[in-house]
């Protein structure tokens, strides 16, 4: 089965072709980061309009790359939510338009399901069951993944997501959007232990997270200085921030593995690209004897490949989920455990 995947939930337009037999045939991505940069964050209306401009040229590109004609495509998968309503509507309407024109079924995919299945695109994929740590700009969750489509939420953030905390801290430090990569790069030149920030909910005895207090602690630290921080002070503060986030994420992941008795951890979402997080998880994996799996770096952040993959896996397992009504809805807010 050959599935076209379309991702337009936020500021990346991603298209891909995934074959049940041959794996990923082609994928293409357009990032809107440059367009949103001057506003310091994603402007939803601009995002929607740009997705409209990008989807069809990217489709033509992946068809050429894979050297297939639209007639070879068996189904169209699109991100149905969660995400920005207008941006999601672009993907949903184009996916359904193509499905109708090509007389092929369509399937709506949960964006986070795409992220948590994305390590299956790697050359050494994990087998089921596993614990997934989802750390993106909008979500921080620990899930127990029994098999495709069977997910249980173990814990989640009560306020800001980890990526959001990175982005807000970046703004406080005067760094460019998107903040995550900039903060983690700056932290690498900072000294460990100079700035001690709180570890929110580290000892809460559950698997939930809270990161808004940490961002406030960064802001208080800057205000207390009463002057502009030097480059070195900023680096030390970034280091303190990253160490606090990473310690909480690693500790809760280890607890989730102990609680479920599982020995495999999958890390997905943009923050999964963070080098300090990867280093600390590698150490914890040795100490606690578990394995860690990541998507390839290009599939850590939003992309079409994970949506095409999720569509193919779902249609293989539940062919009845293929829809031919072409009457679509989007779900800007959508709980993954409701699947
Ligand atoms: O999964 P993603 O691409 O989009 C969402 O679905 O949200 O994640 C984007 C988030 C942003 O908050 C970004 O700052 C963060 O991931 N991020 C990072 C890194 N790369 C991206 N955070 C920390 N370290 C990184 N290297
Ligand atoms: Zn995402």
UniProtKB/TrEMBL annotation:
Binds 1 Fe(2+) ion per subunit. Its EC number is 2.3.1.234. Fe cation binds at residues 111, 115, 302. It is found in: Cytoplasm. SUPFAM superfamilies: Actin-like ATPase domain (SSF53067). GO terms for cellular component: cytoplasm. GO terms for biological process: tRNA threonylcarbamoyladenosine modification. InterPro entries: ATPase_NBD, Gcp-like_dom, KAE1/TsaD, TsaD. Substrate binds at residues 134-138, 167, 180, 274. It comes from the Bacteria. Residues 24-308 form the Gcp-like domain. CDD domains: ASKHA_NBD_TsaD_bac. Keywords: Acyltransferase, Cytoplasm, Hydrolase, Iron, Metal-binding, Transferase, tRNA processing. Its main location: cytoplasm. It catalyses: L-threonylcarbamoyladenylate + adenosine(37) in tRNA = N(6)-L-threonylcarbamoyladenosine(37) in tRNA + AMP + H(+). It holds the Pfam family TsaD. GO terms for molecular function: hydrolase activity; iron ion binding; tRNA N(6)-L-threonylcarbamoyladenine synthase activity. Belongs to the KAE1 / TsaD family. PANTHER family: TRNA N6-ADENOSINE THREONYLCARBAMOYLTRANSFERASE (PTHR11735), TRNA N6-ADENOSINE THREONYLCARBAMOYLTRANSFERASE, MITOCHONDRIAL (PTHR11735:SF6). Required for the formation of a threonylcarbamoyl group on adenosine at position 37 (t(6)A37) in tRNAs that read codons beginning with adenine. Is involved in the transfer of the threonylcarbamoyl moiety of threonylcarbamoyl-AMP (TC-AMP) to the N6 group of A37, together with TsaE and TsaB. TsaD likely plays a direct catalytic role in this reaction. HAMAP family: TsaD. This is tRNA N6-adenosine threonylcarbamoyltransferase. It comes from Candidatus Glomeribacter gigasporarum BEG34. The lineage of its organism: Bacteria, Pseudomonadati, Pseudomonadota, Betaproteobacteria, Burkholderiales.
